[in-house]
Design a protein that fits this description.
about 40% helix; mainly alpha; about 130 residues; 4 helices
Length: about 130
């Protein structure tokens, strides 16, 4: 559901999309109890759990903070504000004038949440740069 996020922000364990039997996991398949593999019947809580590696911790925490912010307090205007911060950040990084600056971030009204969050984290924009928006 949240592109780029590979570990649960609450439990810090790997998010899985397939059961150990190889079948895709669906929370509510209609063929089994919720959060149970419809093919083999395994409860998702019994799947092997891999802790988040230290090397991924910072990135995953940033992703989680951005998703939480946009899902709890997000509005189209706040997403536009975040996109503008990203444009400015990338313009400063490129050291080009506004006229020379490539159209790296499309100037459009709507972005998918996953696209925007992924680009913010990839660019190294901190959640603190977005959170103070008033």
């Amino acid at each position: 559901m949240w592109p780029h996020l590979q570990f649960c922000p609450l439990h810090h364990i790997e998010l899985r999309n397939t059961c150990q039997c190889g079948v895709a996991l669906w929370p509510f398949s209609g063929k089994a109890l919720p959060f149970t593999c419809f093919a083999c019947g395994l409860d998702w809580g019994s799947l092997p759990q891999r802790q988040i590696p230290r090397t991924r911790l910072g990135r995953e925490l940033q992703l989680g903070l951005f998703y939480n912010y946009f899902l709890v307090e997000g509005t189209p205007r706040r997403m536009e504000y975040a996109a503008e911060i990203l444009r400015r950040h990338e313009k400063e990084e490129s050291m080009l004038s506004w006229n020379e600056h490539p159209q790296v971030i499309p100037y459009r009204k709507k972005f998918s949440l996953g696209y925007l969050v992924g680009r913010l984290v990839q660019a190294g924009v901190s959640p603190r740069d977005i959170l103070p928006y008033g």
